[in-house]
Write a structure and sequence with these properties.
79% of the residues lie in helices and 0% in strands. With 333 residues, it is mainly alpha-helical.
């Protein structure tokens, strides 16, 4: 197949996701001004917060993306079953990868903050942390993973995986990370996006990556944030910094230890510690088992990466997502 045609398809896909971001951001700005002009405080209602926050993304941006990208032919990966035991193995690996790359992201973000003299907040997590449990589960554990996997795994891989499985996986992970427009989330979102993309490419069934995505959001997001809401974090910090032999401090510590939420948090940390250790061990087996057969792919050999990444559509997408990320950081400072 002509590389010019393949580059054109990659460019058109990048353009479709560029318009996804444009439509989403324009709608968000219009909604924000409308709500402000009418003095509507949607942040006090979790259902309204999630609905209005996600509407520009999935009710406007994603349909625009689908309409544009529909001109490209789709081809699903070959279907293969994944056993329950393998799903747990993948989950452990996902958690380890998420934790490791999150630490990397925190380190890099801290370096950037110190060098630039700015503060970079994780606005998405901060917002979710303030919401009620039931809407958080519905929107971030159920609807979010379903829609994100459809957009960044199924759509991307079905459209360009036929040219190269390897580059489709790489693009899926990178575009997913960039789409978060948040330095704190970029690194781990990209990393787990690569794992999810590999799983969908090898299974041809989007339900597997959706399930893993749901598990990751529940166990690494909703559960710890829910427990922390029932803890007095400032009191815990004061106890940690105080004189341990002070009777008043000992009494406060005893009260803290008897708090079911504190015990639940310790249990959660122990469980996640075990999962991370197991994930670390399984990660090396996962790396050894990575198999992406691109021998018959039309996009192969010298210059293949440039065709997939260096084209006008992908450049537009990268520029707009980086610009939105920078703009949000400036807005926080």
């Amino acid at each position: 197949m002509d590389k010019k045609k393949i580059r054109s398809d990659y460019a058109w896909m990048g353009f479709a996701f560029f318009m996804f971001v444009i439509a989403m951001e324009v709608t968000s700005i219009i909604m924000a001004y409308t709500l402000k002009a009418n003095n509507i405080d949607f942040l006090s209602n979790s259902w309204l917060t999630y609905t209005l926050g996600l509407a520009p993304v999935w009710a406007v941006g994603f349909p625009v993306c689908l309409a544009i990208i529909s001109r490209l032919k789709s081809k699903k990966p070959e279907e293969n079953e994944i056993k329950v035991g393998s799903m747990f193995k993948y989950y452990f690996v996902v958690v380890f990868v998420m934790m490791a790359t999150n630490i990397l992201g925190l380190i890099i973000t801290a370096i950037v903050e110190k060098a630039a003299g700015i503060t970079i907040e994780n606005s998405t997590i901060d917002l979710i942390n303030k919401q009620k449990l039931i809407p958080s589960i519905l929107f971030t554990v159920i609807l979010g993973p379903i829609l994100e996997e459809l957009a960044f795994r199924k759509v991307i891989i079905d459209k360009v995986g036929q040219y190269s499985k390897k580059y489709a996986i790489l693009l899926s992970g990178l575009m997913f990370g960039l789409f978060h427009t948040n330095m704190h989330q970029f690194f781990y979102a990209t990393a787990i996006g690569l794992v999810f993309a590999y799983i969908y490419t090898n299974s041809g069934k989007i339900r597997y990556s959706i399930i893993l995505h749901m598990m990751a959001n529940l166990m690494s997001g909703i559960i710890p944030m829910t427990i922390i809401k029932h803890l007095d974090v400032e009191a815990i910090q004061k106890i940690a910094d105080a004189d341990p032999v002070d009777p008043a401090v000992q009494q406060a510590a005893q009260e803290m230890y008897s708090n079911p939420a504190f015990l639940a948090f310790l249990g959660y940390l122990a469980l996640m510690g075990i999962i991370v250790i197991v994930g670390f061990i399984l990660f090396f087996d996962f790396i050894k088992e990575l198999k992406v057969d691109d021998t018959e792919s039309p996009l192969n050999g010298k210059g293949a990466g440039r065709v997939a990444f260096i084209n006008w559509g992908m450049i537009l997408f990268i520029v707009i997502t980086v610009a939105v990320t920078v703009f949000e950081i400036i807005g926080m400072n």
